[in-house]
Design a protein that fits this description.
Layout lengths: L5 H12 L3 H4 L27 H19 L4 E12 L9 E10 L4 E9 L10 E6 L18
Antiparallel strand pairs: 1-2, 2-3, 3-4
């Protein structure tokens, strides 16, 4: 049995499916596959990283979780808010805006918070949602290591 390199297998698959070389590299999206052309279209109308509703949702969920399970730790003020990526995986995926910020907790420690605002992933798929991780406080290691899985 011959050994076949991964590159030749990929090239054969591209030829058989009729995709271009750009599509194989993820740089080209067929216009019919874009998120805007789905049955329930997604247009990427998302709030910005510094939007008070986004930061308020992070603060609310964090403070609620901490008070219920872990103790008196609360989020305070946000600063150094900046976008990290916009639709990093292409136009055929759910629109996401990735952001990072620094947050002051009530114990006086500045921590990094990584979060993404995602379209149609809110209640019943009608609104946007926020997925977030505070560095050093990912107690269940959901985004381990050090919130890396919350970033693109």
């Amino acid at each position: 049995m011959r050994r076949v390199s991964l590159r030749s297998v990929l090239a054969a698959a591209i030829c058989l499916t009729g995709l271009s070389a750009e599509a194989a590299g993820g740089r080209y999206v067929n216009p019919a596959d874009r998120a805007e052309e789905r049955i329930i279209p997604m247009y990427g109308n998302l709030p910005g990283c510094e939007d008070p509703a986004v930061l308020g949702e992070i603060t609310s969920w964090f403070n609620s979780r901490e008070a219920k399970f872990w103790g008196p730790l609360q989020l305070g003020s946000f600063d150094r808010i900046r976008p990290v990526a916009w639709r990093p995986w292409g136009e055929d995926f759910i629109p996401r805006r990735f952001c990072t910020a620094r947050v002051l907790t009530n114990d006086g420690v500045l921590r990094r918070v990584d979060y993404s605002v995602r379209e149609n992933l809110g209640l019943f798929g009608y609104t946007w949602n926020v997925n977030w991780c505070v560095s050093g406080l990912d107690r269940h290691r959901s985004y381990a290591p050090d919130c890396k899985m919350a970033r693109p």
